[in-house]
C-alpha cells in the first residue's frame, strides 16, 4: 500500500516511538478511518499522484475532532413530553462511554451565564404550540435571544424535535442553532431535524457527533460500535382504524357545559401506556366548507393542485386545510396576494373572504397556496390497557363553543369528535408522553385533575387497580356544579369503597356564593398534603394551563413554605427540586 519512501518513514517513526505511543497511534488512526468512512458520498476525495486516495485532504477538518484527551461536554434538553430528555440521557451515556466528561441539564436548570465556560455545548429541544419552545425552555430561548456577549470559544450542535404536520417544523431547534451561530459559536455538526419517529434521525445524529469527537484511545471502541448502527428508515406515525363504541355526555340536566366520554375500539392492539394521549386530525364541517367554496366561487368537485397532488376543492378544504383562526402569517400572505389592507388579528377564512373580498378577476384557486395543513389535536387517554384491553381507548372531551364574527362555532376537533355516532369509523394515533408515566406501584400519588384533567387519572386508577401495588392514591377533582358536572362519580365512589382511592377532594366552583377551586381544597388539607410529600408522594397535575396550573403551582409553593422539613431551601426551589427529580409532573394545555 505504501510507497517505498513512505514505508521507510513509517518504519523509522516506529523505531523512534514507544509501545504506548503505538497504542495511541493505533487509536488515532482507527478513529480517523472511522470518521472518513462516515463522510457523505458527495464529499470529494483528492486523488494523489500515485493513484491512491490522499486522505490528508480531509485532515484539517477531522484532525481537530480526533483528539488525545477527553473533552468536557454539556447537553441541555428542552422538553414537554420527555422525548428530548430521553435522547439527551442516551447522548450523555454515549459521550461518557467514548471517554469524555459529559453533564446533562434541563433548559430550566441551565444558567445561561455558564455559557462562556462551556467548550462543547449540545442542545436537544422540541417545538410546541405553534412553533413555540416547550414551556420550561421559554426563558432559556429568550435569554439566548437577548444575549449580546459573543461566544467565540463555544463549539455546539443542535438536535431539533418536531412534527412535519406543523407549519413551523422544528422552529425552536432552528432558532437555537441560528442564535448560537450568530453569537460566534462554531457549529461542529449540522442541525438535526426529527419528525414524529424521532429516533430515526436522532440516534444516527448522536452517533455521528460522538464519532466526530472520538478520542484516540481504546474508548473509541464505544463510539465505533454505535457508529455502525445504520440509520433506521423513518416509519412515520402508526394510525389506528377504530369504531366509536360510546359517545355520551358526562354532564347531567342543568349543566352549563358539555363534556363527553368517548370510547374507541381499534381494529388492532393499540401500543400505549397510561399518561399518553390520542391524536386526531379533525375535518372541517360541511357547512363551513360550503360557505368557503361559495365565497371562493368554486364548486366542491373543482380540481385543485396542492403540493403536487390533484384534489377536489371540497375534499381539500374538508380534510386537509386549516380554515379556522388563521395565523397572522397566513393573513399577511392573503394581503400580499390580493392587495387588500387587513386589520390585524387572527380570523376564520369565511370572515376573511367576506370582510376583505378579493377583486373581480382574481384567480381564487391561488388561496389554496397560502393555506396551511390542519394540525392534530390531542386528548389524554382515560382508559388503561390493563383494565380495558389493548384495543380500547377512552377520552374525556370538553366541547368548546367559540364566539366568532360569523356566529357561534364548535371547537374544531372537540366538535368533530362529539359529532360521531356510535358505530361509526374514526382514525387516531398515539402521542407518547414518557414524562407523564405512573410512578412505581408502591409510591403514593397525589393527583390534581379538575375538568378534563381527570382523564389520565382515570387511566392511572384503573391501571393501579388492575396491576396492584401498595401506593396510596389521592385525587383532587373540580368542576362547576356537583349535581351536573361530577364526571365519573360512580367509578370514583367505587374506587373509594374498595380502598384504591384513599382520599377524594372535590371543588365545585358554582355551588357556593364564594367560588371554590381545587387549590382551596389543597389549602384545607395542607397538613395532610405536607405529610404525604414528606413521606415521598408524587404530585401529578393535569388540565388547563392557565389559570388552573398556575394557581395550583402557587398554592403548592404556599403550602410547602409551611413545611418543617428541608428548611434550608425555599419553597419554590423545593418544588423545582421535586419537578427535576420527577416527583412533580404536569401535563397541562
Ligand atoms: C397533551 C394534551 C392533552 C389534552 N387532553 C385533553 C383532554 O383530555 N380533553 C380535552 O377536552 N382537551 C384536551 N386537550 C386540548 C385539546 O387538544 C384541544 O386543544 C381542545 O379540544 C380544543 O380543540 P378544538 O379543535 O376543539 O378547538 P379549536 O377550534 O382549536 O379552538 C381552540 C381555541 O382557539 C381559539 N379559537 C379558535 N377559533 C377561533 C375563532 N374563530 N375566533 C376566536 N378564537 C378562536 C379559542 O380560544 C378556542 O378556545 C389536550 C391538549 C394537549 C396538548
Ligand atoms: C400540542 C403540540 C404542539 C406541537 N407543535 C409543534 C410545532 O409547532 N412544530 C413542530 O415541529 N412540532 C410540534 N409538535 C411536535 C413535538 O415537537 C414532537 O412531538 C416532539 O417529539 C416532542 O418532543 P418532547 O417530548 O421533547 O417535547 C407539537 C406537539 C404537541 C403535543
From TrEMBL:
<keyword id="KW-0521">NADP</keyword>
<dbReference type="InterPro" id="IPR039261">
    <property type="entry name" value="FNR_nucleotide-bd"/>
</dbReference>
<feature type="domain" description="Flavodoxin-like">
    <location>
        <begin position="73"/>
        <end position="210"/>
    </location>
</feature>
<dbReference type="InterPro" id="IPR001433">
    <property type="entry name" value="OxRdtase_FAD/NAD-bd"/>
</dbReference>
<keyword id="KW-0288">FMN</keyword>
<dbReference type="GO" id="GO:0004783">
    <property type="term" value="F:sulfite reductase (NADPH) activity"/>
</dbReference>
<dbReference type="InterPro" id="IPR029039">
    <property type="entry name" value="Flavoprotein-like_sf"/>
</dbReference>
<dbReference type="InterPro" id="IPR003097">
    <property type="entry name" value="CysJ-like_FAD-binding"/>
</dbReference>
<dbReference type="GO" id="GO:0010181">
    <property type="term" value="F:FMN binding"/>
</dbReference>
<dbReference type="Pfam" id="PF00175">
    <property type="entry name" value="NAD_binding_1"/>
</dbReference>
<dbReference type="InterPro" id="IPR008254">
    <property type="entry name" value="Flavodoxin/NO_synth"/>
</dbReference>
<dbReference type="GO" id="GO:0019344">
    <property type="term" value="P:cysteine biosynthetic process"/>
</dbReference>
<dbReference type="Pfam" id="PF00258">
    <property type="entry name" value="Flavodoxin_1"/>
</dbReference>
<protein>
    <recommendedName>
        <fullName>assimilatory sulfite reductase (NADPH)</fullName>
        <ecNumber>1.8.1.2</ecNumber>
    </recommendedName>
</protein>
<dbReference type="GO" id="GO:0005829">
    <property type="term" value="C:cytosol"/>
</dbReference>
<dbReference type="InterPro" id="IPR001709">
    <property type="entry name" value="Flavoprot_Pyr_Nucl_cyt_Rdtase"/>
</dbReference>
<dbReference type="InterPro" id="IPR001094">
    <property type="entry name" value="Flavdoxin-like"/>
</dbReference>
<feature type="domain" description="FAD-binding FR-type">
    <location>
        <begin position="237"/>
        <end position="439"/>
    </location>
</feature>
<keyword id="KW-0274">FAD</keyword>
<dbReference type="InterPro" id="IPR017927">
    <property type="entry name" value="FAD-bd_FR_type"/>
</dbReference>
<keyword id="KW-0285">Flavoprotein</keyword>
<dbReference type="InterPro" id="IPR017938">
    <property type="entry name" value="Riboflavin_synthase-like_b-brl"/>
</dbReference>
<keyword id="KW-0560">Oxidoreductase</keyword>
<dbReference type="GO" id="GO:0050660">
    <property type="term" value="F:flavin adenine dinucleotide binding"/>
</dbReference>
<keyword id="KW-0198">Cysteine biosynthesis</keyword>
<dbReference type="Pfam" id="PF00667">
    <property type="entry name" value="FAD_binding_1"/>
</dbReference>
<keyword id="KW-0028">Amino-acid biosynthesis</keyword>
<dbReference type="InterPro" id="IPR023173">
    <property type="entry name" value="NADPH_Cyt_P450_Rdtase_alpha"/>
</dbReference>
